[in-house]
Design brief:
The protein has about 170 residues and is an alpha/beta fold. Helices cover about 20% and strands about 20% of the residues. It contains 2 helices and 5 strands; from the N terminus they run αβαββββ. The protein has helices at about 1-25, 55-65; strands at about 40, 85-90, 95-100, 115-130, 155-165. Strand 1, helix 2 (about 55-65) and strand 2 (about 85-90) form a beta-alpha-beta unit. The termini are far apart. The relative contact order is 0.14.
């Protein structure tokens, strides 16, 4: 009888051990895969704003600020949505040239004012000013009034892997 009891206890312990190991396998969880948020993709190195089936950096900034597509033609910039990432999808080292101002918010600016939360992933691109006079690349709005107007919404800008070359500004 003692032998049966010892064998029964041993089998019970073995069964508990096997079941507990199986439980760990069944309850194991896999961490969800990170998927980066969709962004606005710059696919052309021009500084133009046109409904031409291309997405330029100035058009991408406007799309991010306004949360609207940059034009009706296929290939234009996608609409922004809240905080946006603009991805410059051009070969590393691509130079985007600016010669004239896009606007005069507190001085001559090569690109549209930043009036929303924008991150620009440059992927090694270079912004270069060929202007002979003052021309800065970015004006990030602080929601201040300009010449008696109500002012632009406040913006926030983060630049990653982007070179700024020959920008000129006073003050």
């Amino acid at each position: 009888m003692k032998k049966l009891t010892i064998i029964g206890i041993a089998l019970s312990l073995l069964l508990i051990l096997v079941l507990s190991q199986q439980q760990h396998i069944v309850t194991a969880k896999v961490a969800p895969m990170f998927v980066p948020p969709a962004g606005i993709t710059v696919n052309d190195s021009a500084a133009a704003i046109a409904d031409d089936g291309k997405c330029t950096l100035p058009e991408a900034i406007i799309a991010a600020n306004t949360d609207t597509v940059s034009g009706a033609t296929v290939g234009e910039c996608a609409a922004g949505s809240g905080a946006d990432t603009i991805n410059i999808a051009l070969p590393p080292g691509t130079v985007i040239l600016f010669a004239t101002p896009n606007n005069w918010e507190y001085g001559p600016n090569a690109l549209p004012p930043i009036t929303s939360d924008i991150t620009i992933e440059g992927n090694g691109a270079v912004l270069d000013s060929t202007a002979t006079t003052r021309l800065r690349f970015f004006y990030v709005s602080g929601a201040l009034s300009f010449e008696g107007t109500n002012g632009l919404p406040a913006g926030k800008l983060m630049l990653r892997d982007l070179t700024l070359k020959n920008g000129k500004q006073q003050g």
